[in-house]
User: Fold these one by one.
Assistant:
Number 1:
Amino acid sequence: MNVSHTTNVGESGLDILLRAVSLDAMHNSAERPADPSCHPGTRSAILEELDKSSFEQPSDSLILWLHGCAGIGKSAIAQQFAASCHERGQLGGSFFFKRGSASRGTWRNLLPTLAYQLTVAFPTLGPRMQLTVETDKLVLGKAMHHQLEKLLVQPFRRPSQLAFRPILVIDGLDECEDRGAQTTLIRALVDILRSGDAPVHILICSRSEPHLRELFEAPENSDVCRGLEIRADHAALADIRRYLAEGFSRVQKIHTARGMLLDDGWPGENTIEHLVKKSSGTFIYVSTILRYVDDEYSHPADRLDAVLSLDPISLTPLDDLYTQILSSIPNKSTLLRVL
């Protein structure tokens, strides 16, 4: 794919930035279905840790790497944290990568999207950002290190009136299709923050990929980076238990109002505990179950029974669940043709 940037004479710097903004990459964008925020009352310990790391002045963790396995809830936490920072006026910008997306699958739109959000959130940076881009109107077509210098360093070079460090949230870095760009970005951000040229805090969320772990956990980067792993510990299992209990309660009330027979307290503590253990601490497993059970054209108890009938000792419970969901779809000939 060839990317070209066309600039009109007299076009303002902010107009140039705006054309390169990925609207569907921001936490509050209407261009995409929003990533789910954390269920109320869950992930409180991690969110408190993020607040602490981001608001301490000065901080020795200018880059906080939140990492964990697929489906454990990193994007939900990033979504919740970005929304909270936005409400407090602390959010500089957010970008949610998505593999396969034209605007969210590469690094090309990352820096213009963050830069434009910074100028909106902190108007004192606007004139500086505009002047920077107007001085080099081809900046968006240049290499990453050049864009970082122009969009993240130069606007902060003059004495700043900001009373705190803006917070940038970058989610799903491992979903950026260019693996080399992932490592280049980390190295560049470490150098910039270490020098003090860009007074920001950055939260980066990703899977625990080896090439990312090598950089974030390198001893020479410990003065800037700190890692926080999301584990399937007792707190995570308690959060999932609460999420399931409240989710099934909601399904029970909705479908009972539609005339379906479901006992109070359905499906029972034993069933919930079984699903908690099967989840292995991943929210994607239980959230998929709730979406599958909460089908307006099916009886929730029948669908839940189908889930419970799956192999209880399988080592691939999520694969089993997806197989069950696909097998229950009507018009299988159409399904197979689409697949």
Note: The chain has a mean pLDDT of 87.
Number 2:
Amino acid sequence: QAEKAVHQKKEQSKTKCRKARRRHINLVAEFNRRQRKNIWLETHIWHAKRFHMVKKWGYCLGDSPTEKCYRACYRAMTNQCLLQDLSYYCCLELTGKENELLKQLARICSIDTGLTFEEACCLSGRFEGSLNLYQADRYPEDMLGPVTFIWKPRGDSENRQLWIWMHPALKQDILRELKAIFQCTEPEDIYIPEPVTTSIQEEKQMDVVLSLGKKRKKMDKEGERAVPVKKIIGDGTRDPFQSYSWISQTTGIVISDRTMEILRYRLIGPLSHSVLTETLKAASLQTV
């Protein structure tokens, strides 16, 4: 019995107390470790305290509120403003000459369904458009799914930028079709996101272990105490060891995966514009 009591005491001493678990350095390391399989949005902590979370499409998303706030949400939608985090939607960026982009994009959409990428109000970059995408030259069969898009306003350069937003369940099929029509291949330098490679090291280096009453502090390469940084690791729809950009050697079109790099929020309600004007301030232009 004495040996059993001593053994239990040693096992308990290895576990961290709540004060140690709540240290900033440990919270950040835990934040980076837990989102390795299912990516967290930047608003994850806020949602996790108020919503039942579900794991879908490689993300951890808020499904239903824990409190009875349906009336409050409905009141905000009808009288005030309600904000939704849609950052889990995937964004693909197309860069290249406008004529070449429109020529190939016309193969995966049809004017019979409504707006296209060539619509004047959308082509100027003033409005966002929405349409259904199909496999190349297969309309009205083999629909890929609905997307929204927005052009970057014209500048001094001949190249244009187009951002296409889609549901994460449709991303791989649409990306495969875009790479096929533009004849894009992976670049020579394969991009590996830094947070994925460093998060494994952080778990080993930043973990503060309480053993035998002593606290071990890890040092970085320069001899200083290492401090982890809270990071959003990649996205749930892409293999972290695959490239995120593809280029066409014939047309020069570049397809880039901007998922989780460009955040997306939706404002619903009559006071949405008032909230935006109070929150965002126009930057002053400085001419050199």
Note: The longest strand covers residues 143-151.
Number 3:
Amino acid sequence: MITPAFELSQDPDFLTVIIRVPYARASEFDVYFEGQDFKFYAKPYFLRQLTLPGRIVEDGREKASYNTDKGTFTIRLPKEVPGQYFEGLDMLTSLLAPKKSRSAKPLVEEIAASAELSEGEEDNFDWEIEQTPYEESAESTLLPQYCYGFGNLRSGVFQRLQDELSDVIDVKNPDQTPVDERREKRLAAEAAKFDPDHYLADFFEDEAIQQVLKYKPWWVDAHKKMRALQGEGRQERDTLTLVVFSEEEREQMRKFTNKSYLLDKRSRHRVYLGLIDILLAYCYEIRVNEGDKNVESPWNIRKLSATLCWLESFTGIHDVLVSFGRRVLCYPLHRHFALVTRAVNDAVVILQLGK
């Protein structure tokens, strides 16, 4: 069965589900909905279950139509409580998650989902690569293992990847390098990399930089819409979508694996700081390329984010901003402090837009 492409929208009284099924027969489909559950079947498409953020009801006002040109079903479903706002309709991954995984309190990481992903990835693995048996030395069992990654939940990931580390991260031997030592080495590498001549050239010959500073990325218009609606009523705000995902982005969200993590308050704080660090690098990259991605974009984002490049674990927002500023003045093509402050302002705007 194929999970179809779909999107959801709403008005004060109805939830609208648009499902794209170009190879299905319009006369052969089934729809089930009750409470927060919605299911759809039209061979070979099967939307097993959407767990909605609000309740819908069958009262005779429901309606379904099929567009033969676009191959889409449009289904309008009455809300049980008229005027209720359904939050998170664009969070497709969350809507596709089984109900119990959404409501149950996570006690451990759900490793089953990652196991399924690994099995899928193994299909593309080249089994003809020459391999040698792995021999664990007696010394390695005595060395401490330091954690890193999302929520500092990972260790031992890079033990057998020393030859490939330079293509992924800048820190050497991260499994035996504590956080404080990683930070010291990062600061030393930044100090060694800083080029005063490059900085001064960008400072005085800044025509290209002034051009990208004038660029208006997607979040500028979205933020203007949000501010214009601040004086409007709740109903007008609820019916307007500030950010519209592309079909490629929606497809990505449908394929994301759902995971739950047990994070204490301290770990969550560090995760949020890491997110801001990556978001700052993203804002810089979008602006300097004026919204166009290229083959250097992943390198730029990785290099500007100490979270990605040095497995940094920040404890305060001040440290995040200083780290980002230093790396902008050391690594990318355009090294101007105005780009640092503009990226910070851009990140603030994106965060103000909400989830």
Note: The first strand starts at residue 5 and ends at 10.
